[in-house]
Structure formats: structure tokens, C-alpha cells
Amino acid sequence: MDFKNILRKLQTVTENRLMIIMRDTYVHKGKRKQLVDYLHQKIGITDRFVLDAMNEVPRHLFIESVFEDYAYEDRAFPIAAKQTISHPSTVAEQTELLEVNEGEKIMEIGTGCGYQTAVLIKMKALVYTIERQKDLFDFSQKLLRTLDLRPKFQSFGDGFAGLPTFAPFDKILVTCGAEILPTELLKQLKVGGKMVIPLGKTDEQILYRFTKISETQFEKEEFGVYKFVPMLQNKSH
Ligand code: SAH
């Protein structure tokens, strides 16, 4: 076999391996359907748009393969850089609170492994997402591309600053818990827009929804206690 042939063969082997690794089987799809039924019946998610999107995103591909068998249970898992992928019920609740409409401009703070990003993209939102951990920024960028899910903009940066050049946004979703309200983000919200954000100390937060009534007025609603990874201020953490 000549060198070219060996190379071609190697390439095919690599591609086949990737296809095996990235497989989404009937078993995965079946478990996913059960998870979505659970989110509807037990958690009380009623937004069909959210449930349909979560039925489409192969969550098992966003986590370490050792957890694959549990990917469709309502569990959080460790991902790179000591972060976590949120519980499916938390993703569903946060997304439902955001009241997403097709074509809306949404900024997400905390891309993580990209699962929540994928759900928003499946809902046909225009997603702008920020992650401060390089490993996760790289991982999510690669994975979303492989799955042909395209955020409008993916940023390696600080969520506290938001994305002023792309503002204003219809919606903002913060997937990490902030000790203090990031006021810069509220400035980047359209009047009539909504921001869903967990606020509180590191061990537990309260989930809030802010609705921008006018440039200076906000309505604030509360939705119970959660535990998110912290929204960190600087790179030394
Ligand atoms: N959306 C993810 C949740 C990941 S956990 C999911 O679908 O599961 C929250 C993420 O927020 C972590 O990846 C963490 O690194 C990131 N994060 C924390 N502080 C941040 C900040 N100041 N700016 C941007 N991302 C931040």
C-alpha cells in the first residue's frame, strides 16, 4: 500500500470512529423522550417549544462518555474546568421563564459545554454566548459546529461586561450564579426584554426574572432556590 492509500485509510478510520462516538441511537432518542415527558408531567414545563427543542438535542454528546447511560436522567454532571452541565429541569425552567420566540436575539452568559446554547438554537433564537473558561469555549465551539448548530456569536470573555457591540438583546440568560446583579447586562436589554438570572451567595441562589419596563424601570419576579456554579469576576479563579 502506498503512502496516499495509508493516509486515506487512516482518515476513513478516524471518520468512522467519530461517527461511532457521535452516535444518537434509538435508545438515546427513547430515553430523551422519557426525559421530556418527565419534564412536562413532573416538573410542570408546559411550553411545547422548550420541550420540543429538548427532545431534539442529544444531551449525551455534551458530557463525558462515562456518564452517557445517565445523560437522560435529571442530573447535573461535571464538565471541564470544574464546571457543571445544569440539570435538564433547570435548563427547561430557565428557558421557559425566558419566553423565547423564534428569531429573538438572546445573550447567554456561561456557555459551558454548550447544551443550553444548543436548546436555544433549536428554538430558532439568534444566540450570542459568552464563556470565561478557555477549555469550555473551545470544547463547545467544536461540538456545536460538529452538530451543525450555529450560534450567531461565541465569545471567550467576561459575562459581566456582556456584549455591548451586539446590544440590545431581546432576552438574556445567565447560567451561573451571580453574587451581585450585573447591571451592565440590564443596560444591554431592550425595553420589553427579559433577563433570567440566579442571584445569591455561592452555596445557593434565587432565580429571578427581570423585565425591562422602561430604560430605568424593571419588574422583578422570584422563582425559588437553585444551586448554580458561581459567576466569577476575574480570571484568577
Ligand atoms: N449553560 C451551561 C451551564 C454551564 S455552568 C449548560 O448548558 O450546562 C456555567 C458556566 O458559566 C461555566 O461554564 C462557567 O465557566 C461560566 N462562567 C462563570 N462565570 C462567568 C463569567 N463571568 N463570564 C462568562 N462565563 C462565566
Automatic annotation (TrEMBL):
EC number of the protein: 2.1.1.77
Listed Pfam families: PCMT (PF01135)
One of the GO biological process terms: methylation
Top EC class for this record: transferase
Main location: cytoplasm
Domain of life: Bacteria
Location relative to the cell: Cytoplasm
One GO cellular component term: cytoplasm
GO molecular function: protein-L-isoaspartate (D-aspartate) O-methyltransferase activity
Keywords of this entry: Cytoplasm, Methyltransferase, S-adenosyl-L-methionine, Transferase
Family in the record: Belongs to the methyltransferase superfamily. L-isoaspartyl/D-aspartyl protein methyltransferase family.
Protein name: Protein-L-isoaspartate O-methyltransferase
Organism: Epilithonimonas bovis DSM 19482
